[in-house]
Design goal:
Strand order of the largest sheet: 1-2-10-7-8-6-4-5
Helix content: 25-40%
CATH class of the largest domain: Alpha Beta
Distance between the termini: 43 Å
Largest sheet: 8 strands, mixed
Bound molecules: acetamide, zinc ion
CATH architecture of the largest domain: Alpha-Beta Barrel
Number of helices: 17
Strand content: 15-25%
Number of strands: 22
């Protein structure tokens, strides 16, 4: 007889010997150790058996399990199952986005009702195997063993995101793909891609070639470790062609990650205004910014040509990105220029608006309705709430949580990313052990982990909180190594907040599992920081 016992609560889990527990991140809803059952073991004869609905996920899994094991892992769709096989099975009884994973009787069976769910189950199976399974090179002689368990799991939130700023520093296709692989391993499913800002325009727009010809380079950047001084080193042109964008979007989609692009407007637009100064209130000339901070120059909301250009850009962006949401920024747009601009003042009068702040609301509403007419929804930083917002538009709360709470109360969907708990570009608080700096702001993994996105949101409004996101602004991130240091393991804390029911989260248990996760990072070649 097999003995079963449920690991239903963290308390019960803590009572068991730590070594007996698989180190899963994010923690599943329910893990039952099948004591006495035959464990699962991948062997040279193992196959991946899948129904046709999950053939793509099964093929990706096989391709990712081959390098470390050196096994052939053929794909089979005949339904015949033998010991050592991995089985992908469809069943409507499993919640959307979730899965059931069993590894007893020597077979790994992942059951799900949809492709996202079976993919999540595969990520859990990978974590049950030795950490070397993440390696790109064979580990010969290793026993690829997984404990006998039954896992029932499904996500808490639909939006489990990381944000990547490529305007301040450009990372390139290889770095982004590696980030997407790491995100998938954490069941993170949204990449919010910040492609434009004052310091550089990073996406090819066919109708406006000067955006990248002029806007994708700058004369200087902030000096490493002394941000008040320009380094005098020309930067760029760096940008993604539309072909590269499509390749990255497809790579993400294979991993069940939605890429949500951001075109930040009407502020943070100096790279665009450098290329097309007529779209500003003053006419320029400008160059892309090297320094951090908020630029006075913003897009002229009184110019019909500027409004038309914004819509054209969003049209090309919508063609490249199939995401439900398109991010239109809306943050940090000073009204100095609008207050002094005859065209902006004329718009305020013509539209019957009170002032420049309501002009911002008009501008955002115009873009949101344009996206709606294309079958999409707009999302923007919490400033877009000021002065009113079309109903289908979602809000990303970054200046603390007040904006997100207010948005949820007025029936807008909200993604929580308050800077004091979700800005992963801040220093992880490791003191002398931290080779990468962020001036004047620290955010420890424990502080990230302690955040609950529904804190302060009335219970009835909590369904409007659709998720959580960790942000990686790159003013002080130059490339892959420092990017990964800032992203992990704090991104694992974000992943667990997004996936695991709040009542089951526990920092002490997360620390134990994060130690195993560190070994996986090493196998993946990720330059992760220590947890604390
Ligand atoms: C932001 O950090 N300006 C959204
Ligand atoms: Zn103007």
């Amino acid at each position: 007889m097999k003995k079963r016992f449920a690991i239903l609560t963290v308390l019960l889990a803590a009572a068991l010997t730590a070594s007996a527990l698989p180190a899963l991140i994010p923690l599943p809803r329910s893990v039952v150790a099948e004591e006495g059952a035959e464990a699962f073991r991948l062997s040279p004869d193992s196959a991946v058996v899948s129904c046709s609905a999950f053939a793509r996920e099964a093929a990706l899994a096989a391709s990712q399990l081959r390098p470390a094991t050196g096994y052939a892992l053929p794909m089979r769709t005949d339904g015949k199952v033998r010991g050592g096989d991995i089985v992908f099975r469809k069943s409507g009884s499993v919640p959307a986005g979730g899965y059931r994973l069993t590894t007893d009787d020597g077979i790994a069976v992942i059951t799900a009702s949809d492709r996202a769910g079976v993919f999540a189950g595969y990520q859990t199976l990978r974590q049950l195997l030795p950490p070397q399974i993440y390696a790109a090179h064979p580990h010969e002689g290793l026993v690829w063993h997984a404990p006998a368990v039954t896992i029932e799991d499904s996500p808490r939130f639909a939006w489990r995101g990381l944000h990547l700023d490529e305007s301040r520093h450009f990372m390139g296709t290889a770095v982004v793909k590696k980030l997407l692989d790491a995100m998938a391993a954490h069941k993170l499913n949204v990449l919010h891609w910040h492609l434009t800002d004052d310091q550089g325009w990073r996406i090819e727009i066919r109708k406006y070639p000067d955006l990248t010809r002029i806007g994708a380079r700058r004369d200087s950047s902030a000096t490493m470790w002394d941000r008040w001084v320009p380094d005098g080193v020309p930067y760029g042109p760096y940008y993604y062609t539309q072909e590269q964008i499509r390749e990255i979007v497809a790579y993400a989609a294979e991993r069940h990650i939605t890429v949500v692009p951001e075109i930040d407007m009407p502020g943070h637009m100096r790279a665009l205004l450098s290329a097309y100064p007529a779209m500003s209130c003053t006419g320029g000339p400008f160059g892309p910014r090297w320094m951090w901070g908020i630029d006075e120059e913003i897009v002229c909301a009184g110019s019909d040509a500027a409004i038309a250009m914004m819509k054209d850009i969003l049209d090309e962006v919508a063609e490249l990105f199939p995401s439900e949401y398109i991010h239109i920024g809306g943050d940090e747009a000073p009204k100095t220029r609008w207050n002094a601009c005859p065209k902006c003042q004329a718009r305020i009068r013509a539209e019957g608006l009170r002032d420049a702040h309501h002009l911002q609301s008009w501008f955002i509403g115009t873009m949101a309705r344009h996206l709606e007419s294309r079958g999409r929804r707009a999302i923007g930083w919490d400033e877009i709430l000021e002065g009113g917002l079309p109903q289908g538009t979602a809000v990303m709360s970054w200046r603390g949580t007040a904006g997100g709470i207010a948005a949820a109360k007025s029936g807008h969907r909200v993604v929580m990313t308050p800077s004091d708990t979700c800005y992963l570009n801040f220093s992880p608080g490791l003191g002398d052990r931290d080779p990468y700096e962020y001036p004047d702001a620290t955010l420890t993994a424990e502080k990230v982990y302690g955040y609950n996105p529904t804190d302060g949101v009335p219970r009835a409004m909590q369904p409007y909180v659709i998720g959580i996101q960790g942000n990686l602004w790159t003013e002080y991130i130059w490339g892959r190594r420092d990017l990964e240091w800032k992203a992990w393991p704090r991104g694992a804390a974000i992943a667990e907040i997004g996936w695991t029911p709040q009542a089951q989260r526990d920092w002490t248990d997360f620390r134990r599992r994060a130690a195993h996760q560190a070994r996986r990072y090493a196998e993946m070649g990720i330059n992760a920081a220590p947890l604390e």
